[in-house]
Design a protein that fits this description.
- A hairpin with a 5-residue loop joins strand 2 and strand 3.
- The relative contact order is 0.20.
- This protein has one domain: Alpha/beta knot, CATH 3.40.1280.10.
- It is of the alpha/beta class and about 200 residues long.
- The strands form 2 sheets. A 6-stranded parallel β-sheet has the order 5-4-1-7-6-8. Strands 2-3 form a two-stranded antiparallel sheet.
Length: about 200
């Protein structure tokens, strides 16, 4: 006989923001480029962020055409037929905002909250002095400072962004040597690890 235990819920932190960077990131030749926004990232990351209590999810791209693309998606699901067809999707996308640069994101968060912003990055490669997920989880739940968690597209976040980070999280690893998660999967795993520390 299987016994099901009730799921214990905890207070959701209100100081966690995430941003998906489409610039500056690397291509496979280590050139700095601006990558394209994908429809699946818009939907899936918004849903994961909403599920785990992220305050805001930012898509960062300097390209007018890509920002217009995201705005079309948002219009359909927030004001068009999609809002009626799937209200839960509208609710998830309500936390999404589009910005031209990382600096603009940081400025907006500071203005909205009147608190500082600690920049946190993820990377697929191990770095000296990286921070573990339990350590970062404790910061989130015990420090009122805003934390902006960055995820990269393409072949990773540019070094110029990593150099300005206050915290670099340890890379996600599985039981094999293969380490090429989609950014959608990485976001969901990271958020679950951070939340799971407090369950």
């Amino acid at each position: 006989m299987t016994t099901y235990l009730p799921h214990s819920r905890v207070s959701v932190v209100s100081n966690l923001y995430i941003a998906l960077l489409h610039y500056p990131v690397y291509d496979k030749h280590r050139h700095i480029v601006a990558t394209s926004v994908t429809n699946m990232d818009v939907h899936d990351i918004s849903r994961a962020a909403k599920t785990y209590g992220v305050e805001r999810f930012f898509i960062v791209t300097p390209l007018d055409s890509q920002r217009a693309f995201v705005h079309r998606i948002l219009y359909h699901w927030q004001k068009g037929y999609g809002a009626v067809f799937n209200p839960s999707r509208k609710e998830a996308l309500d936390i999404l905002e589009i910005r031209e640069s990382l600096d603009e994101v940081i400025t907006d968060i500071k203005a909205q909250t009147n608190r500082g912003v600690r920049v946190v990055t993820t990377t697929a490669s191990r770095r000296l002095q990286s921070t573990s997920y339990p350590e970062f989880s404790n910061m989130l739940f015990n420090d009122e400072t805003n934390h902006l968690l960055l995820f990269g597209t393409g072949w990773g976040i540019a070094e110029e962004v990593l150099a300005r980070a206050d915290i670099i999280l340890e890379p996600l690893t599985g039981p094999t040597a293969y380490n090429h998660l989609s950014v959608r999967s990485a976001v969901a795993i990271v958020l679950d690890r951070l939340s799971g520390q407090k369950r």
